[in-house]
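User: Please run a holo structure prediction.
Assistant: Happy to. Please share the sequence and the ligand.
User: Here you go; the ligand is zinc ion.
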Amino acid sequence: MNLVAFSLRSKGAHNFLRRLWTVFARFGLTERRTARALQTLVATLRHYGAYPTFFIPAAVLRRHVSLLRQIASSGAEVGIHGYVHNDYRTLTHQQQEEQTRLAIAVFRQNHIPFAGFRNPYLGWTEEALEIFASLGLTYESNEAVIHDVIDLKAFPPRLCRGYEKSLRLFQAVPPSIYDLRPHCEGPLVRLPTSIPDDEMLFDRLRITEPGRIAAIWSTIMARIYALGGLYTLNLHPERGLLCQAALRSLLDYATSQPEPVWIARLEEIAHWWRQRCAFRFEISAAGPQRWRVCLLSSPRAQVQTKYLTVLARSGELAAKEDQSITREGLQRQEWLVEAASCPAVALSPATPPAVMAFLQEQGYAVTRASGEKASDYSLFLDLPDGLGTTPAQQRAQRRQLVAQLEALSAPLLSFAPWPAPYRAALAISSDIDSVTIQDFFLRIIEVARASRPKH
Ligand SMILES: [Zn+2]
């Protein structure tokens, strides 16, 4: 399906003509206009000690290498946004793999460092996740979390229908704690992105007033802050200048919270989450209501201590005698805690290892215990069916488990999601779909060519 057909299907003819008009208004025949938008975004974030993450299709990158090199050298991250700007859901497994390989090759040939992948239209597939992992990508940023921050009843039905089409296109999921934090699938870290994005606000709902945009983004930030999640904002550079005031307001809001928000590039966030996956608690009894806890974690880790008292903390014990620990930058500590029950989740012998691996990755203290010992622990889980079989079942089970543990009113040790001193994270990302008007129209040819089956 080419861009015209795609746009007509997802946006309708009226919107397509409107979009065509805005293309001429937002892009130029030279790089100048987009370059200014990218530089402005970098400069705006630098003011807050942070840098953005850009995603660009490899075919577009190839036409604008020096501009992207300049952006990468300014401290911003550049990630892959497809080989061309197409929807992986319309491609075969083989085409997805070929195009991911081609995209990686273009980035390498042009010496643009990369770590992550974001699909055009956030059109991720299960096959693509396997391909990204097998080709050595560190993370993907596709899962769209929708925040209910707009009263759609106040908008004409025609605009609402367009907005709802975007929700379906983006395979939007609810803003639960689980969905708002990164998670690992094999070697790949999945970083959620939050919607509505700038396109949904500006082009779907026609909300263009900076104050209103700022209020919507700040409301989303407030909700994510409360849940300790990651807010990945997506802003297209062609609307970068229009959004500048709203972006500043969001950054002002994020930096004025009681606890700090970590404003970082997505690769930094993926790196942290990958390291955090190896953090562990080991707990043993040390007398009535006393527990000895061995912690293995980064010095940057924060520990959440619900319904328990830490009586003593050792210094940093490990490191020197165990070289494998220092190589990963982790350290061992020993704590003595007082708690009415063992501050961990215990899993029955019949519960599969995948459940344990998942709860550990999410940062919780987890152990094994037999049914007779269940009452010694704050929570005992017997889940012989594990996380379920289909991806949808697994997602629902993971979401439910995290919600259950977060709501637990009993002693529980867990690692906070973010490094000290942060409570939540914010990443400003921007998809450079086109740099010039020529890029915009070349997309039509490129996408058609890339979806043709090979004989
Ligand atoms: Zn895009």
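Residues 277-415 form one domain.
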